[in-house]
Each structure stands twice: as structure tokens, then as C-alpha cells.
From TrEMBL:
Region (Disordered): 186-207
GO molecular function: methyltransferase activity
Keyword Methyltransferase: yes
Name of this chain's protein: Methyltransferase
Organism: Agrococcus terreus
Entry-linked SUPFAM superfamilies: S-adenosyl-L-methionine-dependent methyltransferases (SSF53335)
Keyword entries, A-Z: Methyltransferase, Transferase
Stored Pfam families: Cons_hypoth95
UniProt xrefs under PROSITE patterns: N6_MTASE (PS00092)
One GO term of the biological process aspect: methylation
UniProt key word Methyltransferase: yes
Amino acid sequence: MTRIIGGLAGGLRLHVPLRGTRPTSERVREALFGALDARSLCDGARVLDLYAGSGALGLEAASRGAETVVLVERDRAAAKVAERNAEAVAKAGAARALVEQVGVAQYLQRTGRRFDLVFLDPPYDLPDAELEAALAELAPALEHPATVVLERSRRSAPVALPGDLELERSRDYGDTTLLYLGTRGTLADASAPEPDAEAAPEAEAAP
């Protein structure tokens, strides 16, 4: 079961697409949002959730006080599920997320919005060159400072970052790695306490 963990919609059960996505485990999401909340990064944030699937990551941020949330998902069936989940979270009093049924590259090339918190949870089999291109397209849409959280397989090769972004830290959770990236020269304090990665069980990936 996938559910909203905390905030206004805490406990709300989310629908998930029947196929094509791998929901991020609840323990990984708890660790992720514990780290973000320790630095107050959700409150008032303008959030972008790329490769959104059910929208679980972006909607968790909405529940925890994000000002605006955009969910980008190319698959039509998954986008419809994300719309349904966004409506349910909004009924709990959180911001109403906007769902964009479009490819990541197409969205980033056309958007005029700017974001200070971004989630990327691409399919594990996404070619590295495509992911690196998405990060390069994302950079102009970032505020300064901004935090980008990239979820990858622990077995994935290191990803090349554009000049605008640098790696702040990474955390491993079973087969999942979370990479915390920041806009160059404006990284937030990384000293806030964070749940122990080694305590987390083997996890799936993608919301």
C-alpha cells in the first residue's frame, strides 16, 4: 500500500498505476521527507516531480506545506492516477497539484516556471544520456538555492551533473540510492539529522 505519510493528508491511501511504475517504499520516503523537513524544505516550496508515476513524492510535499506542485508523467494511465491522487490530497487541505501528461524533456523545454524543490525518480532502465540531458534541461528552471533529489538504483553508474548542480550527499537504502543535489554555491546546510540509511530495508523505486 502507498500512502501519504505526514502532514495535512497524512494516512491518505494513494492509488498506484496497475503497471509500469515501482512505488518508492514507505521507509525510503520517511527517510527522504525526514531529511527535508529537518531543513524546512517543503514548507512554502515550489515543487516539481519528474517521472511522477502516482505522484507520491510531489503529493507528500504538498501534504507537508508546499505552495505549488507540478507532477510530470508521460504515461496516460499513470497521469490519470496522479490526477485522482492530487484531488484527494487537495481535499485534505493541501495545495492542488497540477498534473502534466507530457515527457520530461518536452515539459522542461517549454516551462516558464521556476522551482526550489525537485524530485526525479526515473525508470532504472532510463539511459544515462537521457537522464543527464534532463538534468541539463532542468538547471535553468531552478531557483537559487534549490534542492534536487534524484533516486537511482544503487548499482547505477555515476551520473554526470551539469555545471549548475553539485552533489551534496547520497544515502543508500537497500537497492535504492538517493542523491541530494544543490544549485552550485548555494547548498543548504547538510548537518541536519537524518534517519539511518543502514536501517532501511530493501526498497523499490519510482513513485
